[in-house]
Amino acid sequence: SKTSKLAYCIKGTFVHSTDSSPMEILQDHIMGVNSNGKIEFFENARKQVELAKKWRFSESDIRELGSHEFCMPGMVDTHIHASQYSFSGTALDLSLLDWLDKYTFPTERKYKEAEFAKTIYSSIVRRTLRNGTTTACYFATIYTDSSLLLAEIANNYGQRAFVGKVCMDINNCAANYKETTDESIAETERFIKEFLERKYCRVKPIITPRFAVSCSEELLQELGELAKIHGTHIQSHISEAVGEVESVKTLFPNYKHYTDVYDKSKLLTDKTVMAHGCYLSDEELAIFRERGAAISHCPNSNISLCSGHLDVRKVLKHKVKIGLGTDVAGGYCSSMLDAIRRAIDTSKVLYIQYELGQKIDCSFLHTGSSHSNQQTMPTSKTFSIQKEKYTALSYKEAFRLATLGGSQALNIDDVTGNFQIGKEFDAILVSPCVPGGPFDVFADDTFEDVVQKFLNLGDDRNIKGVYVAGQQVVPLPNA
Ligand code: GUN
Ligand code: ZN
């Protein structure tokens, strides 16, 4: 609207996703950001004179990007454990349940100490921002006060975030890291109350049952009620690993499946994001779709803990919302660029299994009847009648998952996720050609090549600036 003043303009190349295209590259465009941090206009630069007149800006108000530089939406990490950052890059030699007992619970206990929490939480917020994560959906620990501290730190650094105080009342006696059912509920209520009193603009509380293995039926149901009363977001884990799925079957024998456990507790809403989902059935995905609940795909973690692979194609086919997560520290890398790469890798592994594996299997069916085909490798086309051809994720699709997909998964796509007019300007300014940088750009590279090189090879050296709601948060003003 005309009531907000124009703050600045950016001119150059913009790369983003829309509902109809996983990646649009818009060269020679001009974008106006208003004093509320929202995108006021976004047009071809040939309209500059007209726009300058209407919005009263001059050449000196325009920040012009270099020839290979581009602006892309900030990335959305839909699942990250801020408290596990202290041991990220280590402790990846066990599978999920043993890993939790041996490394994770003992580490999270340390967050009772505010000073310890402050150090690690400041580091992870700074690092994710520097790597272009403008929105993060965090797990903290069971400790309310240090979880509130994480919210304060994210707010101070200007990151958009959801922060959850973790709830867990069963099955973790070994590490002496748990709470009673009553404590968990009362502390979650206090967490939400004190959180909301602080009136942060872009940092919000999220109800966080750790996962069904760590939560009693009563706790799950009470948390579902609290989410309903306060209208809060919800996050947890689901169907990440085989041992976990088996535990849930044993612990909750009266439920149809894992998804049913959360669903009956009213924990599956259109503000819910569940991490992993590697072993969800079609029936379970249909319930996700019905409730509007989302999945956070955390490929680094799935591989690092040997949990399994999520079939993104299957999730997309069910029209279930999906974003990417780093899942620090089950995932060892806090950069969403890594999540993009691992998501593509995982998808290619599934392609190898489904398409090339299918070839071998099917060829056995055909060798009996005809020997004339023996010298020809059967192509997957030969068997296309049996199954639709599987295609691996393209880098463009992975880019969408990391940006627009994540914002949809967190139900904030009305505010962020791409460069639609009226959304807040959450963006990264990418400089592919930096001295001593991680890759080279050559004369005959197309702009698509440059973007693809950044996604596959780039790092924070290429990230010249990060903006959240129009405010520059990287480079940090006081760093
Ligand atoms: N399931 C329950 N807790 C956790 C956790 O901290 N990390 C992962 N990856 N899975 C979990
Ligand atoms: Zn996790």
UniProtKB/TrEMBL annotation:
This is Guanine deaminase. GO terms for biological process: guanine catabolic process. Signal peptide: none annotated. Pathway: Purine metabolism; guanine degradation; xanthine from guanine: step 1/1. Keywords: Hydrolase, Metal-binding, Zinc. Residues 71-351, 388-473 form the Amidohydrolase-related domain. The keyword Hydrolase applies. It comes from the Eukaryota.
